[in-house]
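Pasting two entries for a bug report.
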Amino acid sequence: MINRNDASKGLPTIKDVAAAAGVSLKTVSRVINGDEHVREQTREKVLAAIKAVGYQPNAIARSLRVKKTYTIGVIIADITNSFYSAIVRGIEDVATSKNYSLLIANSDEMLKKEKQYTRIFVEKQVEGMIIVPAGGSHKYLEHLAGHLPLVFVDRQPEDFKEASIVKVENSQGAYNLTCHLLKHGYREIAYIGHIASLTTGEERFAGFKKAMEEHGLEIQPSLVRIGSKTVMDAFRATQEILTGQPRRPQAIFATNNIMVLGALRALTHLGLEVPRDIALVGFDDFETADTCRPRLTVVSQPAYAMGREAAIMLFRQMEGAAAGREITLPTELIIRESCGCLGQFQRQPGKEKIS
C-alpha cells in the first residue's frame, strides 16, 4: 500500500491507484469516469485505493477527454433565503452522487442578472441548468430549447412552457391557510404579497381569494399590498395597512418567509403583540418559525424535495428524456401559536398538522 504522506513521490497518480488496488489503469479510468459496467466489488476496491493514496482526478483533463464538464448551473433568487438554500441542498445531493459539481448564482429577482448568468453558464459549458426564474419574459431561453437541458423550480414563466418544472400546490396551500383563519372567526384579513408577476404570487392570491369568496366575504383593497420584494418592502406595506385603517385588521396573511419577517418587524415597531392584538400566518416554513415567540403558523413547502426532484428531472433530460414534464408537490399546514387558536384547533387528517 502506498503511503499518501510520502512526499518524495509527489502527487499521487492514476498509476499509484492501480497499483494499490491491484487493477489495470484502464479499470481505474473506467471507475473515475463512472462506467456502470464495472463490477461493484472492483469499483469499491478502486474507490478505497483512491482515498488511501489521496489521488485527486484532474477535472479539466477528464472533461476534455470525455467531452463533458461534469457541472450544472443553478440560478436562484437569493442563497441567503433559507427556502432557496434548502432547494440548492437538494440539487447538490443528487449532483454529487453523480460526481457533478454546481455553479450557483443569485439573480436577486432581477431578470437582467438571470440573463447574464445564463450566458456565463453556457460559456462555461454546463451540461444543464436549474433556474428559479425572475419576473419578466423568458423568451430569451428559446434558443437553448432542445440543446441544453433546463428545469425550472418553484415558479414557471408565463411565456416559456417548453421546460420542465417542479413546484408546489400554491393555490391549495393558500386556500387551506385562509380557510383555517376563517374557521376561527377572522373576517378582516390583510394580505401582504410578494412580486405580482411571479406565478407563485398569482397562485397564492387565487387561493386566498377563493377561500374568502366561499365564505361570502369580499376582499378589501385597502387591506391588500402586492409587490413586495424585500423585508423592508413588507415592513412598509404592513405599516401602511395598519396605520391607514379606521379599524385594525384581525389577521395578516404574508405570502413567503420574507414577507413574514417584514410583517413581524412592523408589528413590533408599532407595539402590537401576536396573536393578542393581531394574528399572523405565512406561506413558507423556516428554521426560526418554530423557535420564535409566538411560534408561527405556516404553510410548509418541501424545499429540499423540490431541489432533489428538479435535479433528478434534469439528469434524466441529460440522459435523453424529453422536456416539458411537471411535478407538483403537496404543501402542509402547520398550526402553531401565531394564529391565536392553538388548543382550540381540531386536526383534519391529511390537511393540517399541529406542531
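Entry 2 (this is the one that rendered wrong in the viewer):
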Amino acid sequence: MKTKTKLRLGIYLFLFAAICVVIGLSWQRESQRKHLPEAMRQTIEENHRIGKMKQKIKVSGHQAIAIYYPHLGSAEIDANIESAIEEAIEKFEQENQGVEGLCTLYADYESYELNERYGSVQISFERTGAVNMKEVRAWTFDLQQDRLIRFSDLFSAEGMKHLAFLTRSFLTTLAPGQENQDYEMDENVLINNKAELYLGEDELRVVLPPQTLQAQKEELIAVIPLNKVIGYVAEDTRNLLGLQTHGRIIDPTRPMVAMTYDDGPNRQVTPVILDALKEHNGAATFFVLGSRVANHQDIVKRMLDEGSEVGNHTFGHVDLTKQSSQGILDQLAATWEAIQEAGSLDHQELLVRPTYGAYNDTLKKTSPYPLILWSIDTRDWAHQNADKSVDEVMREVQDGDIILMHDMYEPTAQASVRVIEWLSEQGYQLVTVSELFEARGIQLEPGKTYNCAYPTKAH
C-alpha cells in the first residue's frame, strides 16, 4: 500500500475514532441528563449571551449534579470559573457523604456583553441535601487583556465609600425594620475583593458570597442602578467599557437641591412643572394628597415615569399631630393605596411630609416612613406671587437644600419654571429627596425628621 494511502487511511481512522468518542461522551452525558430531576434539565438560553455553553452532568446514587457555565476562551477568566465550579462540586459531595434521599447541585448562569471586549458572568448555585443553600459567584472581565475587572478599576476611594453606602442601604430593604449585622460593611469589602462585581445593562450588582460579611450565612446581592454610581466612574473608563444608562446621571460630587411640592396634583399647575423639569433633565418630589389622586392618575403616572418621586401628604390634608396612632396609619395607608392605583412605587423610597410641617412624639413613633420637612419655605401659598418665590430661592439656596412649594397655584407654576432654569444655569442638579440623601451618604430612617442634606467633610 502506498505511503500516501496509508497516511490518508490513518487520518480517516483517527477522525472516525474521535467522532465515536465525542458521540459516546455526548450519549453518556445525555443519558445521565435524562436521570436528572425535571427542574435541573432546564436552562434559560436567552441569558447565555457570551461564550460557549458547557455543562457538567453527573448522576451517582442519591446525588445529582447539573452545572451549566460559559467557556470564554480566556485563560484566567475560564480558570476562575472552573475553580468556582470544582469548589462547589467538592463542597456538595463532601457534605452529602452518606446522606440518604436525593441530594442535588444545580447551577445556571447569565452573562452580559458590555461590548466586544468587556463582559460579565453570574453563576447561581443551588444545592439541596444535608445543606440547602443558594450561592452566587460573579465576574466582570476584559477579554482582550485576559483579566478580571475589580471595583478598584472603576471607582475612586470616594466612589468606593458611596457604593458601600448604597449597598448597605439596598441590603437593609431586604429586611425592613430589622437591625441585621449581616449588612454591616464598608468599602474595605470592595477594596479587598471580597465582594464580586457584575455589570449589566443598567445596573451594577455587588455580589457577596456566604461568609463575606460577619454572621452572613447566605448569599447577598445588592442591585444598584448605574445612574446612582456612574458619576464616580472616570469618563474615559465609562467610554471604554461602554457603560450607558437610561435616564438621569446623578453626580454626587456636584451641588444639588430637592424641589418639593405639596397638596397636588393639579391639572393646570403640575404638568407645567413637570415640563420644566423634563427640559432641564431634573426631577422633584411631589407630596400628594390621596384624595386628589383618583382624578389625576395620569399626572401621578407621569411623575413616576419621568423619574420624579411621589410622597405621602395624608389623604385629606389632616393634621397628623391630632390623630391617634391608628388614625395616622389609616391616613398614610389610604394615600399609598391611591398612589399605587396610578403607578408602581416599587422603585422608590416611601416618604411622608406631615401637613403644616407639624410632628410630635406619637407621629415619630408611629410612622413607618421618614418624615421630610424643608430648609427653604417660599411661602408661595400665602403670597401667590411668582417674583417673591423666585427671590426667596435665589437669596437662600445652597447645596443640599430642600425647597418647599405647592403645585396648586398658577404663580407657583410660573415661579417653578424660572427657578428650575436658574438653578440649572447655576450648576445645581435637580434631584428627588431620596436621591439627595443617597448622594450625601445618609440613610433615611422611619419616624425621623429631615430638613436638608448639606455636604459634610466625609462626602
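Dev reply: Rendering is fixed now. As a check, the viewer should reflect this: Residues 17 and 44 are 33 Å apart (CA to CA).
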